[in-house]
Design a protein that fits this description.
Blueprint: E1 2-8, H1 28-38, E2 43-49, E3 69-72, E4 75-78, E5 104-108, H2 131-137, E6 140-148, H3 150-163, E7 167-176, H4 184-194, E8 198-200
Parallel strand pairs: 1-2, 1-6, 2-5, 6-7, 7-8
Antiparallel strand pairs: 3-4
Pathway: Cofactor biosynthesis; nicotinate biosynthesis; nicotinate from nicotinamide: step 1/1
Enzyme class: hydrolase
GO molecular function: metal ion binding; nicotinamidase activity
Length: 201
């Protein structure tokens, strides 16, 4: 069975000192590097948040405060600080992430009008990113997922992976939650278990 490692959004803005820093985010990087060193993956894919500066998920572009919610093109949208803007340092992958074995990069969140938490598609389920096509082309059946953040982009990438027919495993030690609300990370794990995602300790 061919397997791939999906590394979600290990970018400067989500790491320590970033515009949308996930608590303890930097701690997952050595774990992810070790996975790549100790395991043989047929493909290693990075996802990259890659927003235009005028992206509608940014509070600054809606005259809103960070933490508010609006309805954006028919779906609820949390208002985030500006982050992972195309071409900026914040959008770059963290320097400590070993990319020697990476075979493919998927950029998401490029459409100004709609956010894209999942590595597979936007939040409206309207535009695909090409990740599913890439994995199917390479006959991947098993996905292992790590990265940032557990309660948003990692969760939605995992649930879309299952929906697309992949055996899906989350490495708990390879992810951290934003925890906008204190239980978000715990709730995300519960939701993933309910959908048949294996959580590896």
């Amino acid at each position: 069975m061919k397997k791939a490692l999906i590394i979600v959004d290990v970018q400067n803005d989500f790491c320590e000192g970033g515009a949308l820093a996930v608590p303890e985010a930097n701690e997952v990087i050595p774990y992810i590097n070790l996975l790549m060193e100790e395991n043989e993956y047929d493909q290693i894919v990075l996802t990259q948040d890659w927003h235009p500066a005028d992206h509608k998920s940014f509070a600054s572009n809606n005259n809103r405060k960070v933490g508010e919610s609006i309805i954006l093109n028919g779906v609820p949208q949390f208002m985030w600080p500006d982050h992972c803007v195309q071409g900026t340092f914040g959008a770059e992958f963290h320097k400590d992430l070993n990319r020697d074995k990476v075979t493919h990069i998927i950029q998401k969140g490029k459409n100004t009008e709609i956010d894209s938490y999942s590595g597979f598609q936007d939040n409206n389920h309207f535009m695909k990113t090409g990740l599913d096509d890439f994995l199917k082309y390479h006959e991947i059946q098993l996905l292992e997922v790590v990265g940032l953040a557990l309660d948003y982009c990692v969760k939605f990438t995992c649930t879309d992976a299952v929906a697309n027919g992949y055996i899906t495993c989350l490495h708990f030690n390879g992810t951290k939650a934003v925890n906008v609300k204190p239980d978000n990370g715990k709730d995300a794990i519960y939701e993933m278990l309910q959908k048949g995602i294996t959580v590896l300790g």
